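Please check this:
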Amino acid sequence: MRRGRFIRRAAAGGLLIVAALALSGCNSIGGFAGAAAGVASGAVTSNPAVGYAIGIGVQAATDATTKYIFRNWQKAEQDEIAAIIGNLEIGQSRRWAIVHQVSYGNEHGEVRVTRLIDTPLVLCKEAIMSVDTGEGAQLKRAWYVTSACRSDDVWKWAAAEPAVERWGSLQ
């Protein structure tokens, strides 16, 4: 009888966590995972200290993993845009898009090279880029200024300022 109640409570708690996670977004994944693990382990062991410790550990691991994934997605997006900038001449523009393996965070827009910065140390290009959201009449564009520099034969993202606003603390 006791085990059946525990399973029903755990299932109800799991549903509440999933619903809250869907409403709150990715920034809360670690907190919800830690809370779920802490409640479940605390109930199984009947020791709240064990539940608390496991919950903190799961939250830290989940947060680190989530940040790692988003940093890799951000790097892929920046590398794609930098490669396009490297192939364009001043005044030229081209569409850009990034599609991740998981259909989340896929972005697209336009990039236009505005200036060449050629010094004895480095070759860079300054560009404006848009990030488009919505479709048709609902299309909204946010514009950013960025730079890309050539390192050997590869163009790399060289500006931190637009990234701080665009990608938050992941930069």
Notes: The chain has a mean pLDDT of 74. The two ends are 51 Å apart (CA to CA). Helices lie at 2-24, 29-45, 48-87, 161-167. Residues 48-87 form the longest helix (40 residues).
